[in-house]
Amino acid sequence: MQDFVQLWVYLSATPLFGLTATISVYVAAQWAYQRLDHAPWANPVLWTVLALATLLTLTGTPYPTYFSGAQFIHFLLGPAVVALGWPLWQRRQQLRQRGAALLAAALAGGLAAAASAVSIGWALGLPAEVLRSLAPKSVTAPVAMGIAEQLGGIPALAAALAVLTGLVGAISGKYLFNALGISSPAVRGFALGTASHGIGAARAMQVHPDAGAYAGLALGLQVVLASLLMPMLGAWLLR
Amino acid sequence: MTMLQGLALLLLCQSAGEALARLLRVFAGVPLPGPVLGMLGLAALLAWPRLRAPVGSAADALLAHLSLLFVPVGVGVMTHLALISQYGGRMLLALLLSTWVGLVVTALVLRALLPADGA
Q: Is B10 on the interface with A (CB under 8 A)?
């Protein structure tokens, strides 16, 4: 028993622990998600995060220890944003033909999401730094962190809020679209990518190839539009 | 090998993007994140046919597991438990409603503007 405790103390303090735990729990969650026929509530990111947070709490492992291993996965968010250039290039034809409509929808949706988040938060009496971290929540986490920093928010909180937003979209999108009678996979995918970034897009990719392609396109557009417009709008509104 | 070449290209684009982002911020005051500039650079480079196969294989592999990449940040929510216990309900309400507003506005605008075939 003593040996086992020593082994655990050693292993849980190495980067190996965070990396192994993240990937194996995610693989298990992904397996369950497939077994459950991609039910929205079985979202693998949601259950992986919950399981890992529980594991860290129960074993008393501090987050920085976990992150020393998980950072190798976290790092790939940057190259993944670059990789969005590929679906963008693949869909250049659609982008050229429907560019105006897509751009208008991305602008309207992105603005509506950010403005409603900040105004609802403001009406509920949330402090300024939380509001500034809420504004970029529909943009993919690594970019949301940078925008929040420029707005004077808390980058780590912005990233967490972005992940939660992604989950909300991925889990509830289907029911919302069905209730509104929006059936086109392209429109559904584009809305998911615009309002709930990478996690919404990942969901769209699993549901329908058209939806996935448009979600990737929306995700890329939102990243460009938000990182250009939000700091400017923010500087103008907050002064 | 192809995928590794693609990954190298992605990282090179990101590095170039980071360098350009710093220049733009310092000299023009334009705040664009490095990976975003890298993405635009990559899309431009794909005009070169030789790069398409390697970039495609690396990008497809990375984007297929996109949701895994959000897990470390998601677990980080637990480090904000103080803020969450204080404002959690209100933050969640603002988050839920605004995400639905974003989804509905995007979908309705796009449906109104796209030709009737919908696809």
A: yes
pLDDT of A234 higher than 90:
no
**Amino acid type, B33:** P
What pTM was estimated for this model as a whole?
A: 0.84
Whether the predicted pLDDT of A239 surpasses 60: no
Residues 6+ apart with CB under 8 A from A95: A88, A102, A217
Instruction: Answer yes or no: do A123 and A196 share one domain.
Output: yes
Query: What are the C-alpha distances in Å from A198 to residues A64, A74, A150, A208, B3?
Result: 24, 14, 22, 15, 22
Pair A135, A166 in one domain: yes
The residue whose two tokens read 């329908």 is: A208
Residue A171 and residue A46 in contact, taking contact as beta carbons nearer than 8 Å: yes
Residue A86 and residue A20 in one domain = no
Q: Which of B14, B92, B95 sits opposite A78 (nearest CB)?
A: B14
Q: Is B37 on the interface with A (CB under 8 A)?
A: no
Q: Give chain A's mean pLDDT.
A: 88
Q: Do B107 and A196 touch (CB under 8 A)?
A: no
ipTM of the complex: 0.88
- A134 lies in the same domain as A30: no
B98 to A137: CB separation less than 8 angstroms, yes or no: yes
The DSSP result for B73-117, as a single string, is HHHGGGGGHHHHHHHHHHHHHHHHHHHHHHHHHHHHHHHHHS-TT
Residues A59, A164, single domain; the answer is no
Q: Is the pLDDT of residue B118 over 50?
A: no
**Total domains, chain A:** 2
Contacts of B111 in chain A (CB under 8 A): 182, 184, 187
Mean pLDDT of B3-29: 91
List chain B domain ranges: 1-64, 72-119
Same domain, A104 and A181: yes
What per-residue confidence (pLDDT) applies to B116? 58
Q: Decide: A52 and B78 in contact? Cβ < 8 Å.
A: no
Mark whether A194 and A89 lie in a shared domain.
Answer: yes
pLDDT digits (tens, 9 = 90+) for A90-139: 888 877 888 889 999 999 999 999 999 999 999 999 998 889 999 998 88
Parent domain of A113: 81-238
